[in-house]
Description:
about 35% helix; 7-stranded antiparallel sheet; 6-stranded mixed sheet; globular; alpha+beta
Amino acid sequence: MRWHSATGCVANERARHGRGAAKQLVRDYDPPKNRARPVVLIRQGDYRRRAVTSLSPEPRVRVFGTCLHPAETLASQLTAADRQAALDRLVHIPGDFIITVAWPDEEAIVSSRYGVTQHHYAVVNREDGPRFVHAPTVLDVLTRADLAWEWNFAALADLAELEYLLDDDTLHPSVMRVPPRSVLRFRNGTLRTHTLDWDALHPTRSAAPREAVDAFNTEVERWLTPQTVLSISGGLDSRVMLSAMLRAGHRPRCVVMGNEDSTDVVISRAIARKYDLELTQIPVHLHDYPLVGRRVATLTNGTKPAKHWHTYLYTSRAGLRRDTPLFVGTAGEFARTFLLDGGVGIRLLDRVAPNLSGLVWRHRRKIRGRVFFPEDLPALRPELAEQLRSGPAATARHRRQVELCTHERGMLAGLDRYYLSHQVRRFGGNGVALYQACATCVMPFVSHGWVDAIWNLPSKWKMGSRWHRFALQQNAPALLEFPCGPGTGPTPARPGPFYYIPRPGARDVPYADYRQWFRHPDLLGHIRAQREGLAELVHPEQLDRILTDHEHTGRRLFGVSFLLLMSAWWSARQPVGPSSSRGSTGGRATDAGTDPARPEDGATHAPQRGAEPRRQR
């Protein structure tokens, strides 16, 4: 047996933390071939074990993300004669992961129920027949498949409008992302995909809020170790995670992002003081953004706009090791109706007019900041301009967005499913990829028991963070003593009748003032210096006009954020091909010497520029 950790994690967490606490990132397992041995099969649901003897060789198994079982156990399960049944069972293992399997005659990929962990693939034709190429990042797939760069302009337009992609698209038309709750099998030149239906995974039933609390507490306890770190903020998602930890008798180390007066820092500091928690405050700095751009663009496949790069800067400076379990609140918003958390009026509207998803999306596009204004379109690449101006291409894209958030149970249910299946998986998945580059990312809100209970709760429990408040009451009522934002008192146990109306004078202090930061001449000058790469999308003269407009008015934040991302993505693609020295990223840094937050493998992450993280009790 040979263990290899591609992300610097400890070889066998199970030996360190006990039988039920195996935490995996990426592991290779190369077992002896053609050896008969007992096989441990996982029975769906209760995971009882039974022994079976098989003469089939064990495959090579790799695990990306967080999986309850180590690669060795998974390999032993896949020696059964019925490979499809064995692969289907892997989908239901707790965690969020990608499992790749290689037999001498076949390759397979298995994704977890919600597929937040990223993995990509392409089927390319060669003289000796089709080849199945897969890797964590798009650039790795292009390198291994020897594919030249092409633009998927429909996906690029989605990125400009939504800040993330939809379905399984990537920015390259020949590369796809592995779908959630799926088994992909490539054999004899043919790729077959089996995906479990959402409604089959979440049948309609009655559920109670206490059931969701119990499921959440169970999931948190499953992944707790003495090294656990909690990413905390002033919101309720991280507070609910903390409440489950306190209920289990665990006091984690906490990390928070922001400056001294940031709302998240102020509230988190008060919570840490009450419970005697170690709190590390991580400021972020504008001058680091151009330096980490290529690294972030590589890890997120060119789909993480620059005003969200703080995820990487924050985590890489938190003093974490690759095997540190970092609890994050990804998908906590699933317990709040996506885009329409508006109280009784919205619930009544859902009853009388359940098919208004199209109006919701038109309103969202209207109020959200634009990357490109109508006057910019003539200076854009024609294929991109065609996707963004009113016409058949844009209409088809918008119709697709509406279809993805439509469900037979009504508008609110459709938005909830859309949020988890697309917003969390694509936008949140980019954040998780950045977390996983620095630590072991644990997402208790992405667990089947909790998601299934929340999905089947009455809609009133998803308004005004009502379930979050209930969970805090059940686990640690004292956490309701702290406010949820500036200018507010303790968090009420139930939302008020007009909770969705902002309080006069209440102003949240963010961790980064992007509107002002991205007007800085140095950052705008950095984008202008990349005009060579950006010329494939926007004419250099129009690029200058956009940047000058933002410098003077501050109204082009989304445009500058998008252009900074595209400049980093162009840089990351140089070069792409079989002669590239890039190799497989797999969560590792590839641009040593330019990334101020790049640690050595397995080393403690430390800040390189700016203020040191502040640790408090």
